[in-house]
Each structure stands twice: as C-alpha cells, then as structure tokens.
# Entry
Amino acid sequence: MNLIAGVERQLDTLAVQSLTRRRRTADSPCAPRQVVDGRSMLAFCSNDYLGLAAHPRVIAALHEGADLYGAGSGAAHLVSGHSRAHAQLEERLAAMQAPHLADARALYFCTGYMANLAALTALGSSPDATIFSEALNHASLIDGARLAKAGVTVYPHGDVAALETKLLESGAGTKIVVTDSVFSMDGDLAPLPALLALCERHGAWLVVDDAHGFGVLGANGRGALEHFALRSPNLVYVGTLGKAAGVGGAFIAAHASVIELMIQRARPYIYTTASPPALAHALLASLDIIEGAEGMERRAHLNRLISLLDDELKLKRWQRLPSRTAIQPIVIGANDEALRAASRLHEQGLWVPAIRPPTVAPGTARLRVTLSAAHTQDEVAQLAAALNHLETQQLERTAA
# Structure
C-alpha cells in the first residue's frame, strides 16, 4: 500500500466535502485591524474579547517579566520551573475565585486544553467514577473524558432534567458533571445554577470550563461563577488566560485539596515544561486591568457592541443565534455556502471564519463572529451591513 496515496485520498475527501481548513499568517499584533498575509484586514475572529493582547500595560509587563526571569522556565513545575511569577499569579487567581470556592487555591497550566485534560483525568482516575459530559462541550473536555479511567455519559445540551435522570440511574462512586460555561460555537450560557443545585443534591463535582467567560462575565470580570453568584465546595473552575486576559495559559481553581490532587496526579501538569515566567508576570498586569475601572468600561463597551450588532443585522434566511456574549454565530447551513460567504467577506477586507463539521453539527455550518472591546461601533456597523448585503445577494441568486 502506498502510504502517501492513502493520506492524499483523505485530503481529497475533505476537499470534496468543503471541510478543508486553511491557515492564514498574521504579520501584526492581535487587534481588530491586522495585516494578514500581507493585506490589511478588519478581524472578527479572535477571542481577544477585551482587547488586551496588544495593551501597552500588558506588553510592558511582558518585557519586564523577561528582564526579571529570562525567556523560559527550563523545567517542569515540580522540578525547577516554578518561578515566583507563577506563584504570584496562582495566588492572585485563587483570590479572584475565593468568593465562590471553599478554601480556594489555583494551579496554572500552559494551555486551556491541558487544564481540561488535567481536571478530568485527575478527578476521574477511578473506574468507579462516571463523567457526565454536556453534548456541546469543547473538544478538550471530550478528550479529557476519553483519557480518564472513568465511564462517560453524555447528556443533551442544556437539559437539566435529562442529566438528573442519568444521575439517578448511576451507581458510580464518584460523579463528575462537566460543562462549558459559554459554548464556543453557539455563544449561549450553560444553566449553571440549576446544574450546581443538581450536583449538590447528588454529591457530584461540577467542573466548569469558563474559557469564554473569564474576564468578560461578572461585575469584576471574574467569570461565570461571579455572573451567577455561585458558591460551593463541589465546584472545580477552569479559566483560560489566552482569550479575554490576552496572554496565554489557563488555570484550575478549586478547594486546596483538589488542587493538591492535581499537582500529584495530573499528568498534563507533571510531565511538561512550565510556561515562561514572563507570561505569568504579564498576566498579573492583565488581571489588574480586568478587575479595575478600565476593565469595567471595556466590558460595558463590549455589551454595547453586542446590542448594536443585534439591532443592525436584518437577516431573513441565515440565523443569528440568540447570544448575549462576544460570540455571535451566524448559522448558514451548508458547508460550501458558509465558505463562499467567508470568502466574499474576505474580499471586502473582513476576516470572519467559516466553521464547519466536525466542530459543529452537519447542516449547521456558520460564520463565527467574535466581538472585542477594541472594536468600534462603526466597525461593527460595517460588518452588519456587509452581512445583510451578502445574504440579500445569496437570496437573489437562489431565486434566479
């Protein structure tokens, strides 16, 4: 068998199904106005929800962190790679989540993917455990559940009653319910208060992946737990620091004993080199902004942009999902039509990605619009006008 020919057949199949993914190369910092593949673009595709990725204070802190700690950590956290910057960041993150967790402690990871793998494999390390996973959970949560020794049961999206039935039927010694807070392709929020009440009744952990909520949700930007005013020892909170926080990495916050378990058992933490300390130092500046007056104003501006897009879009066949978050999906349906729409926008200098299966269900290909506090009202109005015009052209083409 020709191995390369087999690989090329797989690639051809993806192309026929309009499922080929393409990388673009940014030549400038992450911002609404970017130079991409040598061309100026207005981007609506990053997760830099507060516009902190290129914030002068964060950049200055990154420079300072490099001066203090050098370029790299040199080893895993449990060898010699755990710096004072890492320790200070974990203390700060634990303090942010302390109102919502008993005896809070935090643990910093290189990526959100690693944090989710760590949380589920450490908590679900026994075959006597069962993970109850939300149907629309992020791939990292799905993979974490697959890698755990625990059994896995999937419950329908947002269906608390169905989850309760599954919990009642389960004889597992350890029950772990896991959900995104903000669903990355739909932009809606999980019913966290109802899920937590259910977990407390059934003695289950509730693992919340707040990748798209931390920094954005809550009066102080502390995330979904603050947004819903939740507090419980059953909570295990995962926050991402490369989205609204603008830098990189992620953390788990939970009861101190749970974090100690992660340190002792979580392979994605134990067996990898610690992230550069300069990143942790920069994140301290980012957290200052998130919790301060500037962060509050940026969240308010972002909410105004969300309302503006809602007001300006006049879609007839395409569907804007009812999201009040920075994630604003426009469901188109067919893969090829979504690709054409993204291509037409790109021709106009608007960078909006087409999302297709397996990231979303077949027949629900979409444009994933993401808004940032760094966008202006005029830029959002420009996008809305382009989408309205594009859909009208498509309707006229279909009618003809």
In short: The first strand starts at residue 33 and ends at 36. DSSP finds 15 helices and 14 strands in the chain.
